[in-house]
Amino acid sequence: MVAPCDVLAVGAHPDDVELGCGGLLARxxxxxxxxxxxxxxxxxxxxxGTGMQxxxxxxxxAAVLGVAWRICLDLSxxxxxxHQAAQQAALVGVLRRVTPRVVLSHHGGDPHPDxxxxxxLVRRALFLAGVGKLLPETGAPWRVSLALExxxxxxxxxxxxxxxxxxxxxxKRAALAAHASQFEPGREEGEGTPVTHxxxxxxxxxxxxxxxxxxxxxxxxxxxxxxxxxxxxxxxLAWLLGGDx
Length: 245
Known about the structure:
The protein is an alpha/beta fold. 40% of the residues lie in helices and 14% in strands. It is built from eight helices and seven strands; from the N terminus they run βαβαβαβαββαααβα. The chain has a seven-stranded mixed β-sheet. Helix 2 links the parallel strand 2 and strand 3. The chain is globular. 45% of the residues are buried.
């Protein structure tokens, strides 16, 4: 059930937030923060898995992470576009309804077209949500206090904020494992389940390698790195990573 939350994570597809910030989401949920996830699409045009399968996988992954709720906006997979008015209104409506203090989403340097558009869409929606005369039908205006962006799986990001997620890394692994249609090793095309880069085995190993490399920068085993969408308030970071709501 969608309800007000402290932190909102937005991904283009059902596994994106797990890949980019699953450890942080698990850490925040364990610390008592109310965390919500929005999947912009159901990932229905992916090489493996149906939209229905991916929704169920997303539900299981959310349970592993311990988040309060997860929804899919059912925007068109492969056709995210920042200037689509209906897509803007859908996301602005969520922001105004759940009033998050912090938003996590894609970094615009990710080469995946949907991830690029998702990054732009979130930035635009964050601005529009705070302007009362725009889209008044979606609710009262709301502005977030902190917006951070996570890297894509094929993106080398020089992070501005690095968060130790070592203690919750098993939850990130388990949440990714819930997306079996994407990451389980595939068989040959003729046997019905194509082998993809995501199911290669080295894809998830590379994600762990990235998180280990970021952890090494701050002296821990695993960390997730983020860029700031705007100025970063030290007070907001302290609130985000503290135990108090």
